[in-house]
Amino acid sequence: MAAASAVIGAGAWSVSGEGSADGARLDAQAERIVHGRETRVFKSLEQLIGTTPYIVKATVTDVRPGRTVGGEEDDGGATQARDVTLSIETKYKKTLLPATLVVEEWGWDDTGAGYQVENVAWSEVGDKGYYFLTRSQDADDRYRLINTQGRMLETGDGFLELSADPDSELAVAVDGMDSLEFGQRIKYLLLPENSDQLETVTEPPTAPSASQTAPAPEDGGEEPYPGDNVDDGSEPSASATG
């Protein structure tokens, strides 16, 4: 999610901020916006609700530095998440969720410079709204937005501030709804008799890396002639990664 294809809005880095686990200084605010390829794009609320495993209305009660992923060998180096604690007011989907949970958002790069992904501005304590969530990769006790369209915050006048691109089809579909109407629409679409209106948008399989598709180096040996049974582990098979 934090993988960058382009960066805009870069500014001077803050000299003050929070501390990370390795003692580096972290920016107190995002200083740039990172753009990445979205694996799923929702064109309607029916698609967003039908695809998302966990839907809640919640308030942000705490924000602090989270885990670091990646390293020098990875494109873009190491990145550090922000742990956003949500106190749940309403559980619309997967009602066995705990009363509080931690959502990961990004983040800081390996120099401690802060960035936000697309329109997902950094959360602040007191934020309240609707969160469309899935489990974080490699962190069973953490959650993340289903994609960058998956957060709708209440504004002071009761309307919604979307993390989706304002020009997207989803934003147009939700435009004009206040928070109360939006919550009622979620409940309506989740009624069993309305399940036929929901759609599921699947993620495409991840393309194999260059190292996976490159031919094996010649070792001077003669390759054995395969028998009828090729289920010997010698043929790599592509597998999708989340």
What does this structure look like?
It is a single chain. The protein is mainly β and 242 residues long. Helix content is 12%, strand content 33%. It contains 4 helices and 12 strands. It has helices at residues 45-51, 169-174, 179-189, 210-213; strands at 6-8, 17-19, 25-27, 32-35, 54-69, 79-93, 100-109, 115-117, 128-136, 139-145, 151-154, 160-162. Strands 5, 6, 7, 9, 10, 11 and 12 form a 7-stranded antiparallel β-sheet that branches. Strands 1-4-8 form a 3-stranded mixed β-sheet, with no helix packed on it. A hairpin with a 5-residue loop joins strand 11 and strand 12. The longest helix is centred in the last third of the chain and has 11 residues, at 179-189. Residues 1-18 and 223-242 have low confidence and may be disordered.
